Amino acid sequence: MIRLENVSKVYKGSVVALRDISTDIQKEEFVFLVGSSGSGKSTFIKMLLKEEEPSEGTIFVAGKDIGQLPRWRVPYLRRNIGCVFQDFKLLANKTVRENVAFALEVIGRPKNIINQRVPAIIELVGLTDKLNSMPHELSGGEQQRVCIARAMVNRPPILLADEPTGNLDPSTSADIMNLLERLNESGTTVLIATHDHAVVDRSRKRVIELDGGKLVRDQVRGVYGIGG
Amino acid sequence: MALRVNYFVDETVSNLRRNVLLTLAAVSTVSISLLLLGVVMVGGEVLTKMVSSWEGKVELNVFLRDEATPDEVKALDSQAKGMPEVDEVFFESKEQAFEEYKRMFKDSPAITENVDPNALPASYRIKLKDPNSAEAVASRLQGQPGVDEVQFGGEAMKRLLKFTGVVRTILVIAIVLTLGAAILLIANTIRLGIYARRKEIGIMKLVGATNWFIRVPFIFEGTVQAALGALVASALIYAGKVFGLDRMQDAILFLPLTVGSGSIVRMFFTLLLIGIVIGVFGSTLALRRFLEV
Question: Which residues contact B55 (CB under 8 A, 6 or more apart)?
């Protein structure tokens, strides 16, 4: 589903963010990308979304070399990747329902599909009673669930989460991870960048660890993750 | 595609409503900028009319010698009519000149009684297409057989023409300046509005919106704001015409002071067009920076 071949990223001013990374994430896998701040996790995620270009190497998403993707195709790449962020990135002047519906409007889905899918996915994340609330009226955990609903509503094959529990307390974090695991079980490939030890230890999934831009550990499923 | 248009219209309306303050700020900035431009345009039209009416009064007087032969007069007539600068030529005979003279001094019979009807010369009055050519035409006619003297207002007219020329130049400069100010003000307001929503644009990009999908609602909004602004500005100018210029015109009859409603309508469409062009280009340019994610 996601494959990196000898990918390096050097930012202007010769800051090396990633050095010669090669890895392969299969369909329906659940993977943690761990490492301390500045280890290159965010660069990794940004390159998958083509927000950043690798300096060297090739990245494949869903079998396609995204380096070859013309600029105007980038929005279509992003429709295959649901995104969840530490700071939620919800639209502050839209309600919960509208925030989720937005992801479908943007890709031109007709109204009847929007009206049918949006309440369903909001129910899945357990926010039916907050359908018409504004983001600022919600707790952090609720906002993150809206964000996940938005990421999943157009049923992308891949879900990327950048520090999804970074702003949440431990028990809320556990709820969010349960939700993500359930999505994974329903067939979505999930990649979570995090430095939350507790979350990684609890889940016991495949762990890829970055340190100073290098891949230093890749423990496949079945090996108990110890955290980054 | 019909669905898309629905979405764009909904989105535009709800954005305008939810960002009431930004919308108000934008509409009033557009109104004020276009009002300024419209006032200069209307003022310019009034001044141009006034200046043209003054210039239209400039004419050459070619006085003929009493002993000029009919052939000489005829030659002069066709020469004057053949000049490219000349608009119209009127002949005034000795008798007509005397009648005119009597009419001018009809209140003082003492002056007219002592004048021999033959004392006044026959003359040609020549209207010019461009008053600036008066001196050149005059010097060409001066000294022709049968011509006694050519008068063209001389220094006074030169000063008038210099003045009207300055007025026209100032008008052009004023229009360019106010247009420039309007462009800067409106473009800047649009930039602020877009900057206030840069986060929203970033999120749209991340969920896979194409650039056009993001751009169109902004362009629609800019167009609506520009239209509202042009409407407000034109309404204010129309009020200014009815309550200001028209009343002044009633008081001062001899100067063309006012403009027709037709010019206000034309000005509204001009302002609308300017507003929309600035709105569309301004938002497209301002968005470019935020679309490159």
Answer: B131, B160, B161, B164
* Pair B193, B22: CB distance under 8 Å: yes
pLDDT by residue (tens digit) across A42-55?
A: 899 999 999 899 99
Closest CA to A176 of A70, A68, A98, A86: A86
Rounded to a whole number, what is the distance in Å from the CA of A114 to chain B's nearest CA? 12
User: Tokens 């007025």 correspond to what residue?
Assistant: B167
ipTM at complex level: 0.78
User: For residue A77, which residues of chain B lie inside 8 Å, CB to CB?
Assistant: 208
By Cβ distance, the residue of A89, A90, A107 closest to B208 is A107
Set of chain A residues whose Cβ sits within 8 Å of the Cβ of B4: 108
Work out the burial of residue B13: count CB atoms within 10 Å of its CB; fewer than 13 is exposed, 13-18 middle, 19 or more buried: middle
Q: In the numeric block, which tokens belong to residue A180?
A: 């993500």
Q: Which residues of B35-55 are buried (b: 16+ CB within 10 A; e: fewer)?
A: bbbbbbbbebbbbeeebeebb
Q: Quick one: DSSP state of residue B242?
A: I
Alpha helices in A125-169, H assignment, sequence order? 140-152
Q: Which helix H or strand E contains B56, and what residues bound it?
A: helix B20-56
- CB-facing half-sphere around the CA of B84: CA atoms within 13 A: 0
- Rounded CA separation B235/B99 (Å): 51
Instruction: Specify the pTM.
Output: 0.66
Reply yes or no on whether the pLDDT at B154 is more than 70: no
Could you say which of B3, B19, B207 has the minimum Cβ distance to residue A102?
A: B207
* CA distance to partner chain B, nearest, from residue A76 (Å): 6
B76 alpha carbon, distance to own chain's centre: 38
Structure token pair of residue A219:
């423990």
